[in-house]
Amino acid sequence: MDFKSVHIVGTTLEDTWFQLLFSLMNNGRSTNIDEGSYKGSKRLEFDFVSGFINFPHMRPLSPTLPEGIPRPTTDDDIEKYFVNYLMDYNLSEGEHYRYSSWINKPIKSKHNVRDYYGMKLYYDLGPSLAQNSNQEGRKYSESQLDWCIRHFKEKGYSNNHCFIIVGDPDSNFVYDYKYTSEFDRRTSPCLRGIDLKIKDNKLILGVIFRSWDLYGGWPENMGGFTLLDEYIAEQLEGVEPGPIAFASMGLHCYDFQIEVVKTALRK
Question: Which of 55, 87, 179, 222 is the least buried, fewest Cβ under 10 Å from its Cβ?
């Protein structure tokens, strides 16, 4: 059995998305869905795909499609997705997580002494943490996003430390929970990590997905990450929004989307 690795280099979000759709039609593997969304149907999926988008910030962020073909998202929807799902960690009824639950939700931590792989590591509580520390100076509350921004400011832009982890190890076990309807089914986050690098004063953002709907999810997700890249860059002096990278072994289209994709590619 031959496995295919695909790498896409695009100019804009729209250009990259259409390249991915075209490549999926030629390189995708048809698989049965044993468990998960649309169980019992099929999806066309990349074995592995990565990509690099050089100018993701060009507007519009959402793809343009001919009349009659359903658009996966709009620029207004992307803005709402960024604000509500990537930045606001307050859950609505029925939600058990948002990506913001890990990106932007403050994490309580001990920061001056930690036993890490048997080694005592001592941390200096800098001035930026003083207002978040208790009187003993031992605990603070800070989100991964805020920490990354602060770390760039305090330690310099040329470091490889800033990575936002999405999901907890125990989130995998939610798939063992029994459910009676799709509304009760629990999942672990599809997005698993956000990598942040500053090169030549450009903020490069990279994302890793375990599973990813190319037609219905990719455009809105990537539009939201583009706005996140812009948001972070605004906090850092002399830094501009830069390219965006992505990788996944589960980027796919469902069987009921294939005809729409074929029509969109004939535009």
Answer: 179
